[in-house]
Write a structure and sequence with these properties.
Elements lengths: L1 H22 L32 E4 L13 E9 L3 E7 L8 E4 L5 E10 L15 E2 L4 E10 L16 E6 L1
Antiparallel strand pairs: 1-2, 2-7, 3-6, 3-8, 4-5, 5-7
Keywords: Signal
Protein name: Spore coat protein U domain-containing protein
Length: 172
């Protein structure tokens, strides 16, 4: 019986000692869950986030076919973006230069004039190859591109297919 009493007293003594250690302050290994509580109550804020990635869609027609008489041909295209953007325009043959041209497989060229018109508000009315062409986005922006030969062609222009590409890039 003495051994049982001795074991109980030892267990109580160890329990009191360990309680005294934790009562003196918070242990680094045991987080303090009561630091946001006051006499009135406690609170906790939980953040809620949603990330929407930037996106754009450019819809364009098949192409523009030039005539030899110098009369312009036009096509429209639309840009839809969910953020503000920069419209970066160029051509395959002339890059960012306004001195545009079409060329054939032999390297012969015919000068062209290419213009772009913005059919809305909130950006440059006539975007250029040299920019900057900043637009607010969040709506469908409509543009018209018109291309023509700089002058009417004479009957002795070298035969062949002359090409160029109008390049539309949307940058965020």
């Amino acid at each position: 019986m003495a051994k049982i009493i001795q074991a109980v007293v030892s267990a109580l003594a160890l329990g009191v000692c360990s309680t005294a250690i934790y009562a003196g302050g918070s242990s680094p290994s045991v987080p303090n869950k009561w630091n946001s509580c006051t006499e009135v109550g406690c609170s906790k804020d939980i953040p809620i986030t949603l990330t929407v990635k930037k996106k754009c869609v450019v819809t364009a027609p098949q192409g523009i076919t030039l005539t030899s008489n110098g009369v312009g041909a036009s096509q429209s295209y639309q840009v839809r973006a969910n953020t503000h953007y920069v419209l970066d325009l160029s051509t395959e043959n002339a890059a960012k230069s306004n001195n545009t041209f079409v060329k054939n497989s032999n390297g012969q060229t015919i000068d062209t004039v290419i213009t772009t018109a913005y059919l809305g508000s909130g950006g440059p009315a006539a975007p250029t190859f040299t920019g900057p062409n900043n637009y607010a986005g969040l709506v469908e922006d409509k543009f018209t591109v018109t291309a023509k030969t700089k002058v009417a062609l004479d009957d002795w222009q070298a035969a062949g297919t002359y090409t160029d590409q109008y390049k539309i890039r949307v940058l965020y």
